[in-house]
Write a structure and sequence with these properties.
The chain has 15 helices and 10 strands. The chain is an alpha/beta fold.
């Protein structure tokens, strides 16, 4: 097969090591061109993201590759990083590339962004003529398989982050987020800022972000003073608080006075210690961080189930790639068998018939069966 994947990722290396191999687009272009030009590999695709840097190569000279890598990396840092670099070859490399495209190797299992990044990496390689027939075919199969895995499973639809879970709970309780008004307290924190992005992505949601400072700006949200939060509360459909404050941001008594219009509302508390103290009733729902831990645990289980379904889909496409690869690697032998068959019967149509049969068989067989068939033909007509 002669396929190699060399990877430095969040699974093997800390951020300090990954940063050494975080290349700009210009640097990526230089590296893949050097690798092919210097005959380090016949073909090369370089995937570089915040969580991984990976080299996919066909017919690579591993020793020459590491010699080159040392030349584009600071010496002390390079030798320190060697223990974090993982080398995969042949079927192991192919499986890794398929799994990576589908998000099965990602920090957030099943995330969608990696598929776009894979396509961009491949596009850069094609643009610079460092990806040929072999890697083009491999990545085409991997991308097609990943798309099918995402459409035929719930893998990328099951949220696991607290922010995405909070947005989902709001939507489920209110029926929709379109046209709804949501107050977000703590939009400047890590969870709050992620939640703000998720809510903006939904579209047509009126978001009111509180700020303790005058002139605070949160893109995509209407900024209101933290001191005025109770004044706006009656108009809200949801109130979400995600601060690191040791004190309550919503207290029961002033909240009860502020909520003069009975309607369906949800209060979500993502803080430890808790931010919200609210009186629950038939039209007021409260969800705390402990509730989300239970939901996340269940969702992680669901993700694992969907990941297994995705792997079955990927296996099917990997087998198709392996069949193609067997033909690709035996192309010269098959051409010679076809010529010999035509010569044996004195009729070119004999070779054409065999070629037609092989193309038809290719669609309905496994790598092992194709290998056996080619061996039988070689013994009979080579």
């Amino acid at each position: 097969m002669n396929l190699t994947a060399i990877t430095i990722s969040h699974k093997t290396a800390p951020v300090a090591i990954r940063e050494l191999f975080a290349y700009t687009k210009k640097k990526q272009t230089q590296i893949i061109c050097d690798i092919v030009k210097d005959d380090i590999a016949k073909e090369c695709v370089l995937l570089s993201t915040c969580n991984r840097t990976e080299f996919y190569m066909h017919e690579a000279r591993i020793g020459a590759f590491f010699q080159y890598l040392s030349s584009v990396t600071e010496n002390a840092a390079y030798y320190h990083s060697l223990g974090y670099i993982k080398i995969l070859q042949n079927e192991y490399a192919a499986e890794h590339i398929f799994n990576t495209a589908a998000g099965l190797e990602s920090m957030v299992l099943g995330e969608d962004q990696i598929l776009g990044q894979m396509k961009q990496a491949h596009a850069l390689a094609m643009e610079n003529l460092t990806s040929g027939v072999y890697l083009n075919t491999l990545i085409r199969y991997a991308v097609t398989a990943a798309k099918k895995a995402k459409t035929q499973t719930e893998l990328s639809k099951i949220p696991v982050s607290v922010a995405s879970l909070a947005a989902k709970e709001c939507c489920e309780y209110l029926g929709t987020l379109c046209g709804k008004r949501i107050m977000l307290i703590g939009a400047g924190g890590s969870v709050g800022s992620a939640l703000l992005k998720d809510l903006i992505a939904v579209g047509n949601v009126d978001i009111y972000a509180t700020s303790r400072r005058s002139g605070g700006i949160y893109e995509g949200a209407t900024v209101i003073s933290y001191a005025d939060r109770y004044k706006f509360m009656n108009d809200m459909d949801a109130v979400i608080s995600a601060t690191s404050s040791p004190h309550l941001t919503i207290e029961e008594s002033p909240a009860e006075k502020a909520l003069t219009t009975p309607k369906k509302r949800i209060f979500i508390d993502l803080a430890v210690p808790k931010d919200i103290q609210i009186k629950k009733n038939d039209h007021t729902k409260y969800i705390g961080i402990d509730d989300f831990e239970k939901i996340a645990e269940h969702n992680n289980y669901l993700k694992a189930v969907e990941a297994e379904k995705a792997r079955e889909i990927l296996k099917d496409y990997m087998e198709k790639f392996y069949v193609w690869q067997t033909y690709f690697e035996n192309a010269a032998l098959i051409d010679e068998i076809i010529r010999n068959l035509s010569a044996k019967f004195g009729d070119e149509r004999a070779g054409e018939i065999l070629n037609y049969v092989l193309r038809r068989v290719k669609r309905h067989t496994s790598k092992q069966e194709i290998e056996c068939l080619i061996k039988c033909l070689e013994k009979s007509f080579h």
